[in-house]
Every structure is written in C-alpha cells, then in structure tokens.
C-alpha cells in the first residue's frame, strides 16, 4: 500500500519547522515508525515536515545533565562514550532496539514522540526522571517524563509542538544498571521489558529506579518496588518483594501478542532478573 498524498516540507530551521507544523502536519525524523504508518494509511497528514536538516543532533553535558538533541540516532546513543559514561542504562537499552539498520535511522525524539508503551527509550526516560525540551507556537517549555507519556502513542506534546531535546540527570556514582527484555524474536518490540538502576552504599540500597515497558498504556514506573528496596540489604527477599510490587504496578494489555496475566507474571520475573543483574547477583534460570 502507498501513503495517501501529502505535502512535503524539508525544514532548515526550527522556526521553519514550527511554521509548517500547523493543521494536520506530522514531523518526519528517522521515519522508522512514521513511514509504515503512512504506507498503511493509518495516519493521513496533510503535510509531512522533514526535520532531518535541523541542528538537533547534539549530544553533550550541561551542568549535571546529559543533553540529547531530538535527532540523535539510536546507534549514536548506543555507541557514544559520553552516554556510556553518563547514562549507561540508556546506552544499553538502545542496543536492544530493533536491528542496526533501525538504530542507524531511528531518533531519540522520534522514539519519545511515538510513545510506544513497549519501547525502551521512554521506559528509561521515566525511570531516570528525564525532562523533555519542547518548542512550539507558545514558546519553549519543559515537560518531565512522568507527565509526558499519556497513553499508547499519546504524549503531552500539543499540536504544532516539536520535541527538541531530552535531558537526563546524572545518576549517583557507582550506580549499577540492567535491561532485560522479552520479545518473540530477537530485538522485536518487547512483550515486556524492565530497566533498572540501583545504587548500593555500605551494603544497603540507597536509590532504586525501575520502569517496566509493555505492561501498561505508558511505561510504568515501579515506585512501590523502588521504595521496598531503599534502606535494605539487596538480598533475595528484598528483590523478590520488589519484583512482585513492580508486577502489581502494571496494567498490561490483553492482546493477540500475549495475555495480560502472562505479561504481569513476566513483569515480576524480568524485574527480579534486572535487579539481580544490576546488583551483580547470579541470575537464576
Ligand atoms: P519517526 O518514525 O520519524 O516518527 C515517529 C513519530 O514521532 C511520528 O508521529 C512523528 O511525527 C513523531 N516525531 C518524530 N520526531 C519528532 C519530534 N522531534 N517532535 C515531535 N514529534 C516527532 N523501538 C523500540 O523502542 N524497540 C524496538 O525493539 C523496536 N524495534 C523496531 C523494529 C523495526 C523493524 C522498526 C521499523 C522499528 C522498531 N522500533 C523499535 C521503533 C524505532 O525505535 C523507531 O525509530 C522509533 O519508534 C521512531 O523514531 P523515528 O526517529 O524513526 O521517528
């Protein structure tokens, strides 16, 4: 099938993109999600605004934040020494996304704006308290990740707004992380995935960040599971209780890919594995 007709605008500046983004327009970034939607006529924008020429592929530190421009490609995130040092959870999560050809084109902004509940990048952003920098007709604004994802493929971006960057705060020193993904085929979108980042000092968990993808309308931040871990020695009991609490926080879909009960069970199993991985424990089969 071919896309329905649309006007094509290749913007050279953010201002040009914003002025083209009125009415029924759509941003084109890496095209990995938008082009299939266009070809299946699941979306029929009047105008497609290609933003690939914009100066939004910066990747740098700003104060205690790591700043990723919306056009940074997944593969850049995965391989950047700066990201590996400053946000290793994100670098590892991106290595699980699709295949290299997808990662070469897919962008940080595209993955966030597409808001697939099973996607890795939104889950990491929710786990690590990222902030999204947005430009729009009303001027610039910032949206915390916890308020950004509203439902499957729904975000807090208002019509005509462009996501321009993602800011990730620095995790505490000696934090450890893990990403565990369950999918039908290697690097398909997750049935369920768990990202975790844990800090242990003097044998006690001082900070835990856990998010589950594929188990709710948005990425699920497992706050109760995190609270169960903090202040405790990271033993098997604490991990098992946290894993059950993470599963309790999910609201999985019941669809042709997997029943809700299976996804919830997997959320517990994968959280256990992620925490054991992050804590350097032996992962049980
Ligand atoms: P596009 O496809 O260009 O755009 C996606 C949507 O976001 C569109 O609605 C577009 O208008 C909007 N948009 C894009 N950029 C902006 C912006 N700056 N501001 C506002 N709106 C914007 N993802 C995973 O997370 N995990 C996987 O395992 C995975 N596997 C995949 C396997 C295959 C075979 C394919 C084709 C894709 C897969 N993906 C996966 C999706 C991939 O990560 C996409 O790259 C991503 O979802 C969209 O990024 P994009 O840059 O291609 O965006």
TrEMBL record:
Q: Does the keyword Flavoprotein apply?
A: yes
The protein's UniProt keywords, in alphabetical order, are: FAD, Flavoprotein, Oxidoreductase
What InterPro entries does UniProt report for this protein, alphabetically? CO_DH_flav_C, CO_DH_flav_C_dom_sf, Diverse_Substr_Oxidored, FAD-bd_PCMH, FAD-bd_PCMH-like_sf, FAD-bd_PCMH_sub1, FAD-bd_PCMH_sub2, Mopterin_DH_FAD-bd
- PROSITE patterns (UniProt xref): FAD_PCMH (PS51387)
The record places domain FAD-binding PCMH-type at: 1-173
Q: Which Pfam families match?
A: CO_deh_flav_C, FAD_binding_5
Matching entries from PANTHER family are given as: XANTHINE DEHYDROGENASE SUBUNIT C-RELATED
Identification of the protein by name: Xanthine dehydrogenase family protein subunit M
UniProt source species = Saccharothrix xinjiangensis
